[in-house]
Amino acid sequence: MDYRSPSSDTHLVDEELQWARLLSGGDPRRSMALVYVQKFCTAVHEFEPAFRAGLLDDSALEHVRQRLVARLDYALLVMTANGLDGTPGLDDLRNIRQAMLAASSLADLMALTEPIHQVNHIVCEGLEK
Predict the structure, then answer these.
(1) pLDDT for 44-100, tens place per residue?
(2) How far, in Å, CA of 29 to CA of 26, rounded?
(3) How many CB atoms lie within 10 A of CB 58?
């Protein structure tokens, strides 16, 4: 592996190396699934700190929910369209989608950040197999 992470955070380095393996592994289906799962996870990780900083309140709930669900829906669509619907963690992502739709506040929605991050790891590991 020629990729070298500039980070000293071992968690981030491990993630980056996993992504590098998937992206360079020669399977465009898995590579693109990774891209869309990461786009979803990144969006969550951008909204969550904005919420924690007080920049978002419940008036933004529907907008944030729609944006995140749309990202997740596309990741699920890409995986299903490419025969990856048996990937571990996909059912968990579908359950998270339902929890996102059921969230009655932005706090409820943002409370899903860590579960989303954990499921993201499961999906990425499943894509690597």
Answers:
(1) 999 999 999 999 999 999 999 999 999 999 999 999 999 999 999 999 999 999 999
(2) 9
(3) 14
> Distance between CA 16 and CA 47 in Å, rounded?
22
Half-sphere exposure of 56 (CA within 13 A, CB side): 19
Distance CA 17, CA 82 (A): 23
Task: Give 124's Cβ-side CA count (13 Å radius).
Answer: 24
User: Is the CB of residue 32 less than 8 Å from the CB of residue 82?
Assistant: yes
Which of the 8 DSSP states describes residue 59? G
CB 127 within 8 A of CB 88: no
Name residues whose C-beta falls within 8 Å of residue 117's C-beta, 6 or more positions apart in sequence. Answer: 41, 44, 45
Cα–Cα distance, 93 to 85 (Å, whole number): 11
pLDDT tens per residue across span 87-108: 999 999 999 999 999 999 999 9
